[in-house]
Each structure stands twice: as C-alpha cells, then as structure tokens.
Design brief:
The chain is an alpha+beta fold and 471 residues long. 47% of the residues lie in helices and 11% in strands. The protein is built from 17 helices and ten strands.
Length: 471
C-alpha cells in the first residue's frame, strides 16, 4: 500500500530573510506576544477615570446612556447653575449666605458634585476590559476623588456651621409685629422707616445680665436706604412706660434709675420679665425697647444686642478699623477682656485700631465726656461699616461665626439683617448722626416731647435727603 505524501516540513524551512515580503507574516514564536496585544493589555482605564472626574458620565455614555445623563446633570449642570445664580445675585451675597434654605441647597449640590464623580469613576473601573491594568487608574481615581471631595466637604462643613450660627444669633420673636410700637395697634408693615435699637452691654461673651452702656437708635429709610443714628445717653433718667404695662405699674412716674439699668432690673425680677416674653427674645431688651418707644414716640421694630467684650473680638476678626482723630484721646484703664495694656494716648491723625484699642476708644471718658463718648461710638460704627466688604466677611467667616454666636443676639430676620448690612457696607448711606446730649436735651430731666420732635426731624431729613441742622 502506498503511503500518502506528507506535507511540507515547515520547521525545516529556513526563516524568511529580513526585509522579504513574508517576513512580517511570520507566526510569533512560543511565549511571545504581538505589540498590539501588549498595548491592549497594558492600556488601563486611566484616561477614562480622568474624564469621569472632569465630566462624570461621559466615559460610559455609549454603554449606559440614561445613567450618564443623570451623572452629567447632577455633577455638572446643577453645580454650574448654582455658580451662575450666585454670580448673578452677588450684590445680595449677604442675604444668600444667611438663608438656611440656600445653605441646605449648597450642601446638597456639593454632595451631588462629589457622589456623581465617585459613581462615574467606579463605573469606569468596574467596566474595564479583562486583562487591562488597573493599578494606575485606581491610584488616579483615589487621588482625584480626594481632591474633588476636599473643597466640597469644606463647603458643607462651613454651611452647617453658618446654619448653627444663624439659629443661635437670629432669635425668633414668634410674630412679625414690631418690637415696641406707639399706641394700642401695631404699625403697618409698609411703614417707611425701620427702627432698630442697638444695645451694647458691659458683660463678656455669653453673659447677658448687663447694663446697656451703649444705646443707639438706628433709623433706616426703607425706600432710599439712608440711615440715621441717635445715641441715647446711659444716664437718661425718668424713662416712661405705657399705661398698663408691667414696668408702668412698677414705676408710674417713670423709671427711678438711669436708663442703662432697665435691662438688669427686669433680669433681676422674673415676674416682670415673664410679662415681656416674646417668643425667644430677651424680655429685658423688649422691656427697654418698650420704654424708649413710648417715651420718644417712635416705633422700634427690632433690637441688636452685643456684649462689648464680644465687640472687641468682632473688630479683631474683621481685621481692625482705621479712624482719623483730630486730637489726642486719653485711654481708660484696661477694661476686662483687653488683650494688652493700653497706651496712655492715641492720636491725633490716622490711627489703626484693633479690637482692644477700639474698645478703649469708645469707652474712654477721660478725654472729654460721656456725651462725646457716644459720638465716638457712632463714628467707629460708621468707619467700620464703610471699611468692611462682603468678600472680607466671607473670607473671615470662621472667626466671625464664633464671635457672633457668643456675643450677638438680634430680633432681626436674616433678610432684614442682610438689608441693613448691605446699607451699612456702603458707608455713604449713614446720612445723619446725633446724640441726645446737652445742649439739645437735659438727660437728668428730659423733655420727651422735644426728643420726639427731634427724632421726627431727623427722620424727615433722611426721608428727603436734606441735612439735619443738629447733626
């Protein structure tokens, strides 16, 4: 039987010569891989991970279109829209950062910003081809996610802190009516002036049984935003209260001590304080505002209460304030909370005040008198308002939040506070400033009718924009 011919012995053939047409067709030798296969195996999903961090959902758009659209929406479109809204409304930045709903939205947007990228990166890593390298891609994914998460997490924490501060500082009055009004009915909400009683106490942070050595009535003309300030002397006597009120029953002929003693008196008499309760407001401040409103025939809508030692820290947190003095001012003995020993004198000329010097400046009586001290207090507030910008407040927020939580309480709503802060930052809106001091009035025996007429004239001046003759 004939044996069939065998095929050619390929192993015995000589290898193709280099450069011959068949050289590139030679099969690979045992244990070797082609360059294409090697490239495929070594190419990991690193580029896709980077794209997932920049545009979440984009790398998986062809595989999971619905998921990709969702990731792009939550991780790109929503944050960009939030930034655009913030930029468009940048002139109302104070009202935005004091709105707890806005702060909650910021926290949600930040969370979506991070989660969308994390989900997109995980989808890229899990969807890689078998055999591809993942080491570099995993490293990039971890580092990139941390880089993205840090600023977003920082923003979430800051928003949460600010929410806590707002809840502590802006106390609820339980209603929308003015704090203290004239007559038996509240003033219409459309009243053209918003009057705020600014109280500065002589106690430290977190302590509220204080004498209100600083009392300033801030009157804001709603339409124009022009502001007037009236200093009320601490030694004003005979403050009167409306008929039928607890303090009138106690002092039918007027308060028998200095006006700055009303607050601690009400604090020391819980039975009287209980009758001035208004939501979470300080009843002592409500009682004082009621007496000032009735005596001076002016509606008081809100109060701001600041502990003076906290005021020191507030000035420091804002970076200080510069004032121009026309004479030398002797400094007082070191007040509680001062961070160093006062110099004997400051001024004349331009003087940079930190919190310690500022507190000494507004509390010194050796330079002139109690009444001149009231003028320095108003002057410092004017300069502080003019020199403080919205960006500074945001950058220095952590220290400001700590100080405000310990040292400030107000019945203002966050919207009202933002409106006032925006006006004060412009500086030029503080049109008039006056103190109820001799020769305008006699604090020891005040004529309440004259004081009411003076305040009416002051409000008319800022309403019309003309100069007040006694400012």
């Amino acid at each position: 039987m004939t044996t069939p011919p065998t095929g050619p012995d390929w192993q015995s053939l000589p290898p193709p010569a280099p450069g011959s047409p068949t050289a590139d067709l030679a099969p690979p030798t045992h244990g070797e891989t082609s360059d294409v296969e090697s490239a495929i195996k070594n190419r990991g999903p690193t580029r896709a991970v980077i794209m997932a961090l920049v545009l979440p959902g984009a790398p998986s758009f062809l595989r999971r279109r619905l998921v990709s659209w969702l990731l792009l929406f939550t991780g790109v479109l929503v944050p960009v829209a939030a930034v655009v809204v913030g930029y468009v409304r940048r002139d109302r930045i104070t009202s935005l950062v004091l709105d707890t709903t806005i702060l909650l939205i910021v926290q949600i947007v930040c969370a979506l910003f991070v989660v969308s990228r994390l989900v997109s990166v995980m989808e890229v890593i899990s969807g890689r081809r078998p055999g591809t390298s993942k080491r570099l891609a995993s490293f990039v994914a971890v580092v990139g996610t941390l880089v993205v998460a840090f600023p977003a997490g920082f923003s979430v924490v800051r928003a949460d802190q600010l929410t806590d501060v707002i809840n502590d500082v802006f106390v609820n009055s339980g209603g929308s009516e003015p704090l203290a009004f004239i007559g038996t009915n509240t003033v219409d909400e459309g009243d053209e002036f918003h009057n705020i009683l600014l109280l500065g106490g002589d106690e430290g942070p977190g302590r509220w049984a204080l004498r209100t050595d600083t009392m300033i009535l801030v009157s804001v003309h709603r339409e124009s935003g022009r502001i007037a300030m009236v200093s009320i002397p601490r030694n004003l006597r005979g403050l009167e209260f409306p008929d039928g009120s607890p303090m009138h029953d106690e002092f039918p002929r007027g308060f028998d001590d200095l006006t700055n003693a009303v607050y601690p008196y009400v604090y020391a008499h819980p039975d009287i304080a209980a009758q001035y309760l208004r939501g979470a407001l300080a009843p002592e401040a409500v009682a004082l505002a009621t007496g000032i409103a009735h005596s001076m025939q002016v509606t008081i809508h809100d109060y701001v209460l600041v502990n003076m030692q906290g005021f020191l820290d507030l000035i420091d947190a804002l970076g200080g304030v510069t004032v121009t003095l026309d004479k030398r001012i002797p400094m007082p003995g070191n007040v509680p909370g001062a961070k160093y020993r006062y110099p004997d004198l400051i001024g004349p000329g331009e003087v940079d005040l930190d919190g310690t010097l500022a507190l000494g400046y507004v509390r010194s009586r050796a330079a002139d008198s109690d009444y001149s001290r009231m003028g320095r207090q108003r002057h410092l507030l004017e300069q502080l308002a003019a020199q403080t910008t919205g960006s500074e407040v945001l950058l220095k927020f952590p220290d400001l939040a700590r100080v405000m939580r310990d040292s400030v309480r107000t019945s203002l709503s966050t919207d009202e506070f933002a409106f006032l802060a925006d006006r004060l930052r412009s500086g030029v809106n503080i049109q008039e400033s006056v103190g109820l001091a001799p020769p305008l009035i006699n604090p020891g025996n005040p004529d309440w009718g004259d004081i009411a007429s003076l305040i009416d004239a002051l409000q008319e001046a800022i309403r019309t924009g003309v100069d007040f003759p006694f400012a």
